[in-house]
Amino acid sequence: MKPFDYVKPATLADAVAAAAQPGAAYLAAGTNLIDLMKGGVSRPDRLVDVTHLPGLDRIEHLPDGGVRIGALVSNAGLAHDTDFAKAYPAVAEALLSGASAQLRNAATVGGNLLQRTRCAYFYDTASRCNKRAAGSGCDAREGENRLHAVLGWSEQCIATHPSDFCVPLVALDAVVEIEGRNGRRELPLEELHRLPGETPERETVLEPGDLITAVRLPAAARDFAAHARYLKVRERTSYAFAVVSAAAALQIENGKIKDARVALGGIAAKPWRSRVAEQVLKGATPDAQNFREAAQAALAVAKPSGDNAFKIELARRVIVRALTLATAGTPARISALPGSPFAANSGALHA
Amino acid sequence: MPELNPTQNPVHMRHGSNIGQPLTRRDGILKVKGQAEYAADHHPKGMLFAVIANASIARGRVTSLDIAAAKAHPGVIDVMTSSHKPKLAIDPDIKTNPFVFRMEVLQSDEIRYAGQSIAVVIAETLEAATEGAALLSPRYAALPARVGLDAGESFEPPVVGVGNPTAHVHGDVEAGLAAAAKTVEAVYETPPQYHNAMEPHAVVASWDGDRLSIDTPSQAMVMARARVAELFGIPAENIQIRSPFLGGGFGSKGFLTGPQILGVMAARLVGKPVKLVLRREQMYGPVGHRAPTRQRLRMGVDGDGRLVAIDHHARTVSSSYDDFYEPAAGASHTLYASRAIRTTHDAVRVDTGTPLFMRAPGEATGSIALESMIDEMAFACGIDPLDFRLQNYAEVEPITGKPFSSKALRECYAQGAARFGWDKRRLAPRTMRDESGLLVGWGMGTATFPALMFMAEARAAIRRDGSGVMEIGAHDMGQGAWTALAQIAADGLGLDLDKVEFRSGTSDLPDGGIAGGSAHTATAGNAIHNAGAAVIAKLADLATKDERSPLFGAGNTGVVARDGRLHRRDDESRSESYADILTRAGLAEIDARATGAADPAAQAEYAMHAHGAVFAEVKVDPDLGQVRVTRMVGAFAAGRIINPRMVQSQLYGGMIWGLSFALHEEAITDRRSGRIMNANLAEYHIPVNADVPALDVLTVDEHDPHVNALGIKGVGEIGITGSAGAVANAVWHATGVRVRRFPIRIDELLT
Question: Is the interface score ipTM higher than 0.90?
Answer without folding.
Answer: yes
